[in-house]
Amino acid sequence: MNFEGKRLLVIVPHPDDETLAAGGFMARVKTEGGHVYVMVMATGLQPQYGSRSESVIRKAELENSMRIVGVDRYELVFEDIHHLKLDLIPRKDLVDIIEDTSAVSITKVRPDILVFPGSSFNQDHNAIFEACLTATRPYPEALKFTPPIILLFSHFDEQAWNTNTSWQNNNFWVDISGYLDVKARLLGCYPSQIKQHRGHWRTVENVLTVNKMCGLRAGVEAAEEFRCIRMLI
């Protein structure tokens, strides 16, 4: 598949999720003449194991990452609020943002390909999964635009620690063999989130190793993998 002229919209809960899941995908779409849009829901002040989440820092990290990709537009919806509490927002409010009110909503962007998180132990990821699933329910085109290709992502830790094994049904791979260097640069934009402990999956080296493992499943050097839940052609 060539992505010339295609519109990719990536919706994620937090800054860095877009890079971990689809950094190579976004870079490839831009290189091939497509358009990339990113919606990030929330960031805030939260202690984390081995690090700390601070809005000012994570907003700057996101800006650097988006600049390197060359995204056409992105939006950080909630700054300093709702971080790790997106599940407390009424789903209707999240659906309205995703469908229409965000600057990079589905209605405004009309993406050919939509990427968002699958179900997870992370409450924010689950909230966005459920809201995006609601926002993309099929309707006749005259009533509501629905992206023709919808892909779910799951991070490595969500696959490793999850009783829901639906990720094993991943069936859509994007070859990023020529984009590992770019993805490493994007990961480097997030020093507050990238780990140094070799036993943690979220080191630059380990993330790229995961992409190489995904590539083995598709017969290429490296890939980002997803579960396709809609493909209308």
List the helices and strands and how they pair.
Blueprint: E1 7-12, H1 17-31, E2 35-43, E3 46-48, E4 51-53, H2 55-69, E5 73-79, H3 91-101, H4 106-109, E6 113-117, H5 123-135, E7 149-153, H6 156-160, E8 172-175, H7 180-187, H8 204-218, E9 223-231
Parallel strand pairs: 1-2, 1-6, 2-5, 6-7
Antiparallel strand pairs: 3-4, 7-9, 8-9
Helix pairs in contact: 1-7, 2-7, 3-5
General description of the model:
By secondary structure, the protein is of the alpha/beta class. It has helices at 17-31, 55-69, 91-101, 106-109, 123-135, 156-160, 180-187, 204-218, and strands spanning 7-12, 35-43, 46-48, 51-53, 73-79, 113-117, 149-153, 172-175, 223-231. It has one domain (7-231): LmbE-like (Rossmann fold), CATH 3.40.50. α1 (17-31) links the parallel β1 and β2 (35-43). The model has no long low-confidence stretch (mean pLDDT 92).
Could you report the average pLDDT, rounded to the nearest whole number?
92
Helix percent band: 25-40%
CATH architecture: 3-Layer(aba) Sandwich
Number of strands: 9
Rg on CA atoms, Å: 16 Å
Q: In sequence order, what are the helices and strands, one letter per element?
A: EHEEEHEHHEHEHEHHE
Instruction: Give the biggest sheet.
Output: 7 strands, mixed
- In whole angstroms, how far apart are the ends? 13 Å
CATH class: Alpha Beta
Query: How many domain regions?
Result: 1
Global morphology:
globular
Quick take:
This protein has helices at residues 17-31, 55-69, 91-101, 106-109, 123-135, 156-160, 180-187, 204-218, and strands at residues 7-12, 35-43, 46-48, 51-53, 73-79, 113-117, 149-153, 172-175, 223-231. With 233 residues, the chain is α/β, with parallel strands linked by helices.
